[in-house]
Write a structure and sequence with these properties.
220 residues; globular; alpha/beta; two-stranded antiparallel sheet; 8 strands; six-stranded parallel sheet; 46% helix; Rossmann fold
Length: 220
């Protein structure tokens, strides 16, 4: 039985923590920031508890201080330099190719929207052989990230002339659910990324354990 009564014609996928299993690289990058600011390392559970959008709030919480623009730029550089160095060790979520291939084979469409930098996202998606499955791939423009996904999702759907009521966003954080609601789309969340099960369930969106199960919830 599908979780949504109205048919889903298009899926918008999140990248980090959803299609890409990069939690170990994320934690190492977060702890690079901690080291740079003289804070003790965090466990994955501690990072999940602190995770928020905009990301600046997360770092101000774990560093226990307000960050000015220069310090925020330093956080961003420390994080992404370490993350980029570990990117080659990250793998796709289990069954990613099969899941994406099956959705396309069913005559439906899908795209990718990430809050990771567009200039880094597109070659990485191509490296993993996934570009072929997507009608559009959008990342974050500019050089410093950390904002909310809502405006990006609205632009992403408008660029494809998609009716938001036909769309489900599949992601791994509360901001994905908030963005979907703001855009008039629906959402399914997976527990494979940066936030706790309890935080995801509190959004009211359906929550499941994998991208394979997420698509099963949408089958009609």
């Amino acid at each position: 039985m599908p979780v949504y009564s109205c048919p889903v014609k298009h899926v918008v996928w999140d990248w980090n923590g959803t299609l890409l299993n990069d939690n170990h690289a994320v934690l190492a990058a977060v702890n690079e920031v901690c080291a740079g600011f003289g804070r003790a390392e965090l466990s994955w559970g501690e990072w999940q508890a602190a995770y928020a959008r905009p990301m600046r709030l997360s770092y101000e919480q774990i560093l226990q201080r307000a960050l000015d623009e220069e310090e925020w730029a330093q956080v961003d550089k420390l994080y992404h330099d370490r993350y980029d160095a570990l990117l080659h060790t990250c793998e796709l979520a289990a069954g990613a190719h099969d899941v994406l291939r099956a959705w396309t084979a069913g005559g439906r469409t899908q795209s990718l929207l990430s809050m990771w930098f567009h200039s880094r996202l597109t070659p990485t998606v191509e490296h993993y052989g996934l570009t072929q499955y997507f009608t559009r791939v959008d990342g974050l423009p500019g050089e410093i990230g950390g904002g909310s996904k809502a405006d990006s999702l609205i632009r992403h759907l408008e660029a494809q002339q998609l009716d938001p009521s036909d769309v489900v966003l599949i992601g791994d954080v509360v901001d994905d659910a908030n963005a979907a609601q703001a855009a008039g789309a629906r959402c399914v969340l997976v527990t494979t990324g940066a936030m706790t099960l309890e935080a995801l369930q509190a959004t009211g969106a359906p929550v499941t354990t994998s991208i394979t199960e997420a698509l099963r919830l949408l089958d009609t």
